[in-house]
Amino acid sequence: MIVPLVVDVTLRPGIADPEGATIERALPALGFEGVTHVRAGRTFRFEVDAPDVASATAIAAALAERLLSNPVIEDAVVRRGDQ
Amino acid sequence: MTRIGVVVFPGSNCEHDAASAMRELGADVDFVWHTETDLAGFDGLVLPGGFAHGDYLRPGALARFSPVMSAVADFAAAGGRVLGICNGFQVLTEAGLLPGALQKNRGLTFISQPTTVIVASTRSTLTRAATVGQRLVIPINHFSGAYTCDDETFDRLEAGDQIVVRYETNPNGSRGDVAGIANEAGNVVGLMPHPERAMSTLLGSGDGRILLAGFLGAYALAGARDVGAL
Asked: Which of A15, A16, A73 lies closest to B106 in CB terms?
C-alpha cells in the first residue's frame, strides 16, 4: 500500500532558534499582538510503499532520524499525511 | 615530505586556497574527489570550505553520505590527522567525527570578516605549534557557524581540553565562544575560521601559518608569518 506521510522537524527545546525569534520580533510591527514562543521548523512530505502503515511509519522514522533531522539539535515527528 | 589529501565535494570552493597554503608550508598536496574510497599514503586530510552538495537540507548533511566519508572515518580512527575548515567542520559534525552541530548564526546574517581567536588548547594537531592564550587574526566566512551542543557534551569538551580556539568577541552566537574543537585524541579538528586565508600579513594576516604549520608538523615554519620571512 502507498502511505502518505509527513515528517515535522523542529529544533529541540532549549536550542536557540534565530529564525523563530526574528519572526516573533517582527509580529508587533505587523499588528499581531500576544503571539509568543514562535519556533520555526520544516516539513517533509513523501509517500512510502510498504505492506502496512506501521512498517511505512517505521521507514519514515528511520530516515527522519538518519537524514532529515540532526538529532543533536532537532526533533523529528512522523505523522500520517492523509488524516 | 608530508602528503596531504584535500577532499573535494561537489560545491566545495576553498580547496585551492587550502592546497596552496599547505604547499607553501612544504606539503605535497593531492585533491581527493568525494567518490574515492582509498586514502592510503596520506599523512593528513583537509575537508575544505564551501557548500558541499549545495548545503541542501543542512550544511554537511548530504556530504556525510559521500563515499569518501567512510574512508575518512577509518583514517581518523587509525589516528590520522583530519582538519575540517568551515564547511569541512560542518561535515565532520554531521558525520559524527566531532560532537555537536553548527547552527545558523544569531542574527541570521552571513558574516565575512576578520576575527580574533584565542588559542584555548594546544593538544590538537592544529594548535600544537601555538601557545595557550595566543591571539590570532583569522577571517570567518559563514552563515551557519554558531556551535551548539547539549550541556553534557559541552562539559565533556571543556574537561577534555577539546575546545581549541575561541572567539575573542563572539560574532555568531556560538556556545562558549567556540570557534574550533578537537576530538578526544586531538587528531581530528574542526574550526569555522579560515586559516588558509591568513597566510600573509600583506593580505591582512599571516596567523593562519601558525595553525597550518602545526597541523603539518612543520614547526620551524610556524613562526614565519610572511612569504618573505621563509
From this structure: A16
pLDDT of residue A44: 97
Q: Would residue B196 show up in a list of annotated catalytic residues for this protein?
A: yes
What percent of chain A has a predicted confidence (pLDDT) above 90?
92
Entry pTM: 0.92
Q: How far is A42 from chain B (nearest CA, A)?
A: 10
Radius of gyration of chain B (CA): 16
Residues of chain B falling short of pLDDT 70:
223-230
Asked if B205 and B177 touch (Cβ cutoff 8 Å), the reply is no
Q: Hey, which residues 92-111 in chain B have their CB within 8 Å of chain A?
A: 93-94, 99-101, 103-108
Q: Is B113 exposed, middle or buried (0-12, 13-18, 19+ CB in 10 A)?
A: exposed
> Which residues does chain A have within 8 Å of residue B110's beta carbon, measured at their own beta carbons?
none
Q: Please tell me the predicted confidence (pLDDT) of residue A16.
A: 87
